[in-house]
Structure formats: structure tokens, C-alpha cells
Amino acid sequence: MTNFNNTPDRRKNINITKWSYYGKDVLPMWVADMDFPAPKPILDELHKRIDHGVMGYEIPARPLQEIAAARMDRLYRWKVDPDAVRVVTGIVSGFSVAARAFCSPKKGVAMQTPVYNEFHEVKNNVGIPQIDIPLVKNIKGNILKYEIDWDLFEKRVKKAGMFLLCNPHNPLGIIFSRKELTRMAEICIRNDVLIVSDEIHSELILGENKFTPMAKLSREIEKHVITLVSPSKTFNVPGLFCGFAIIPDKELRDRYTTELEHLRLHVGSMGLHAAYVGFSGKCDGWLRDLNRYLTGNRDFLVDYVTKYMPNVRTTIPDATYLGWLDFTQTEIEGSPFEFFKEKAKVALSEGKIFGKEGAGHTRINFGTSRAILKEGLDKMRKAMESI
Ligand SMILES: Cc1ncc(COP(=O)(O)O)c(C=O)c1O
Fold first, then answer.
1. If the chain, 387 residues long, is cut into consecutive pieces of 10 residues, what is the mean pLDDT of each piece?
2. What domains appear along the chain, each with residue ranges and CATH number?
3. Mutate to test the pocket of ligand 1, among 115, 118, 202, 353 (most ligand atoms within 8 A of CB)
């Protein structure tokens, strides 16, 4: 069993953005990476590369496509032809390439807000309209649940060239059900809208939840989907930048590949090797332990908020290590992100970066030891009590 209670002394990692950006006196619970070292098989592989010493160019090789396809089969019984797999520099570049290839000033990108801040950059990077389809907030006691407004979904998505789905959803932690995915896919196909499914968090599954890739639903749906997966969140190697675009339909794949090749987005050899080992299955025991630990952290967070933070609402994420907190009913004036940064010395993620619905909310990263999570929550609680 991996012991996730012991995180390395993070203050020594001065070049890690999470721990350096807001200064040494601020506890970081913001950007989406974890405080745990990557699993040993990945570290061993990287050590081997370094010990060899020669750091030459490395073009992604066929075995990498095969290992990514094999992982989809092993996890979901989704049969993917290795030829359908493209290696990308990361998932953000992966969906940006799709937007360049399939959107236009008349046919923009649709997304379910509040959603991952980089989704909101696509419109600027590519020069296309953004079409927001807000999820609807449902409140029971202090628990938040977000749901799809289907009439709004159809009305808005049909104006898009591409629907950028975030599943599991960042920051809301939702795993969409097969029924919801099927309905979304049918609407997109009926309206000739390409689906790009960002599934970067798909292996960080909490409790007994189950994940289904959008493209696994049927062979017909698969033809309209570009699936983006990556080892970066799963094995905590986001700084190595390597991901996969899985595109079963040949015509879509050719258009995507042309754009990808024009942009010359190459992957570093450390990223390629980490991805190979991560997807090979050698780290799956570590991953099971991690998911159990993160489930404990999620439960700790929800219990803590419920017991000690009156009027604060929280999601119960199905996946990811990201919580979403609603401070709109508290006495905090202005941005809760600024409040906690100044008064608690805790850096969360500002809710508004995920869309305008995020005002008065923050995202909290619980991908850390239980002790650090408690330390952050205690600081936040104290700051709220001092109002
Ligand atoms: C939904 C989602 N997609 C993509 C990324 C980043 O992907 P990459 O670093 O591979 O570009 C993140 C990181 O937080 C994310 O949450």
C-alpha cells in the first residue's frame, strides 16, 4: 500500500508552480496537480533515461499507440484500433487543435459552464465564438448538484461546430451517466456537431462510481467523437506533457492530423516514456490506493464543510480531486478567493475563471495529504469565524 500521508517537503520544490506562485506563507489548494510523487515504475523509467544520458529527439512510436488502445480495452472493453490514436502535447493543445480544424467564426465551441478555465481560452486562441450552456444548480441542504437543462442544451449546442465536453467535469466532479451521454450525443449528431470529449480525469474515480467514455456508447456515436485521455492527472505527471487523441473515424482523423502536423506540437521524450509506463498497467495498484485515499479526502472535505462551515455549500464529486464550494450565502463580501488568500493564507481557485456562474464560489484541490487538507480547512474556518 502506498502511504499518501507522507508528501515530500514541498517548500523545497521551489520551481513547482503550485507551491511557489502565491509565496511561501500561502498554502496552495489551487492548480490541478497533486502533492504526491509519481508511481515508482514511472520514476524508475525516467531514472533509466537520465542515467543513459543521451537526450535525443524521439518520435512517438507504434507501441505507444498500441498501449493507449489496449488500456481503453482493458478499462472499458472499448476496442480501439491503434491507428486511431494520435499523440498530443497535452489535452489543452489536443482540444485547441480540434477547434482549429472543426470550428469557424460562424460555428463556435460549446461548453457546459462553469467549466475548466482553459476551455474559455479556445475562443481567443482560435478566433471563434464561445457558446455557454450553463449547468443548472440544484441545492439540497448544503449539498450542490448540477444538472443539464436539455432544452437549453439543444437550443445552444446546435449553433456550435464542436461541443467540448468535460467528463468527468472540472470543477464540478460530475461523471455523466450513460443515459445523459447518449442523449447529449444524439442531440449533437442530429445537429451535425462534433463532440470533443476531454476525459483527462477519467481514471480518478471516487467511491464506487463507474466511468464510461462517450465514444464507447456505440459504434455510431464513436464516429462523431474525438476522445482526449492522458496519464498526466492519473499518475501526477502533468509537467511532462503527453496525451492522446483517439479518433476512430478516418475522415475526422485526417483533418485533425493535418492541423496537428501544421502546428508542429512535439512531445518531449520523458513525457512519452512516462505515458508508456503509466498506461502499461504497471502503476494500477498505486492508482487503486490513490483513488481510495482521494475518496477519504473527499468524504473528509464534505463532512468538514457540513459540520464546521455554516452556510457553505459543497458538491460531492464522483471523480477528480477537485471540490467546488459555494460561499454566496455566507458573510464574505466580494470574492471568496481573495478573502481566503488574504485572511487565511490559503490559495484556492477563483470561481469566476470557470465562467460567470462561478462568482461567489471557489474550487478546492484535495489531491494532498489528509493533514494538509485539514490544515487548509482549519485556516479557512478560522478566517470565516473572524468575520
Ligand atoms: C479538464 C482538463 N483538461 C485538461 C487539463 C490540462 O491538460 P494538459 O496539461 O494535458 O494540457 C486539465 C488540467 O487541469 C483539466 O482539468
1. 84 73 91 94 97 94 97 98 98 98 97 98 96 98 98 98 98 98 98 98 98 98 98 97 98 98 95 98 98 98 98 98 98 97 98 98 98 98 97
2. 10-38+284-385 (3.90.1150.10), 62-279 (3.40.640.10)
3. 118
Shortest CA distance to 316 belongs to which of 165, 143, 65?
A: 143
Read off the pTM.
0.98
Q: Are the C-beta atoms of residues 287 and 235 closer than 8 Å to each other? A: yes
How many Å lie between the centroid of ligand 1 and the Cα of residue 382? Answer: 32
The vertex-58 CA angle with 57 and 62, nearest 5°, equals 165
pLDDT value of position 230: 98
Please give all residues whose beta carbon lies within 6 A of any atom in ligand 1, as ranges: 32, 90-92, 116, 166, 170, 198, 200, 230, 232, 238, 243
Give me ligand 1 centre to Cα 92, in Å: 6
For residue 232, which atom of ligand 1 is closest to its CA? 10
Q: Which residues contact 253 (CB under 8 A, 6 or more apart)?
A: 84, 86, 247
